[in-house]
Design goal:
By secondary structure, this protein is mainly alpha-helical. The chain has seven helices and three strands, in the order αβααββαααα. The longest helix is centred in the last third of the chain and has 34 residues. It is globular, with a radius of gyration of 21 Å. The two termini are 22 Å apart. Keywords: Coiled coil. It holds the Pfam family PadR. This is PadR family transcriptional regulator.
Length: 227
């Protein structure tokens, strides 16, 4: 399985954990809620769905609206197929959510993982955020070293493009710092009190650790130095 198809499977399972959907709904949610999938077509989505069905993680249901009795198909027209997550699919998705390896830090996979942070435990969120920050700090060092070596040979426009890429990465690192500090503050607030009274479990998936500010735009880092 390619990394890109793995990201798509993860996102499909995550969306279907929220509610059953048919293919058109899924593609719309992938495009609008998870913009990283704008380039995916039905020709990519449906083979993914078939694979997930074959693995036992989804089931196909013919009929009308979700959670309603199937409607009789009109003559000459196929009923819509609704995809529903199975118990095995939910278990598999939860296993994927718990993973914090290097793939979780890469650009597209991180975007998909972040979209489901509301369903992810606090400790896992912290490891993914810290891993992403470390990844970008390494990238930033490479970009600075490359710029120092080549700046005398670059024209003004190429130099400005490289500076723009660096600023994008720096901006995401600052954003990650805010998120990490907010997660830490939320975790500290939920530690057991001195008198031993029970506090909320620090591994809950609640998203209360997000910083509150007006700028909710997604950072767009450049990765020119990884080629």
């Amino acid at each position: 399985m390619s990394r890109r198809s793995g990201i798509l499977e993860f996102a499909v399972l995550g969306l279907l954990r929220e509610s059953p959907m048919h293919g058109y709904e899924l593609r719309k949610r992938l495009n609008t809620s998870l913009g990283v999938f704008r380039a995916f077509s039905y020709g990519t989505l449906y083979p993914c769905l078939k694979t997930l069905v074959a693995n036992g993680w989804l089931i196909e249901e013919s009929g009308g609206a979700r959670d309603e009795a199937p409607a009789a198909p009109l003559a000459g027209r196929r009923a819509k197929i609704v995809y529903r997550l199975t118990a095995e699919g939910k278990e598999h998705f939860e296993e994927l959510l718990s993973q914090t390896g290097p793939d979780a830090y890469e650009d597209e996979h991180f975007a998909a993982r972040f979209a489901f942070f509301g369903q992810t435990s606090r400790d896992v969120r912290m490891r993914v955020l810290e891993g992403r920050r470390s990844r970008l700090e390494e990238r930033l060092e490479k970009m600075r070293a490359s710029l120092a070596r080549t700046r005398e040979r670059l024209d003004d426009y190429t130099l400005e493009l490289q500076r723009h890429g660096m600023e994008s990465v720096e901006r995401e690192v600052r954003w990650l710092n805010e998120l990490i500090e907010s997660e830490r503050a939320g975790r500290d607030q939920r530690r057991p009190a001195a008198d031993g009274s029970a506090q909320q479990d620090s591994t809950s998936g609640e998203s209360g650790g997000l910083p509150r500010h007006g700028d909710t735009s997604w950072p767009d880092p450049s990765d020119d130095t990884d080629t």
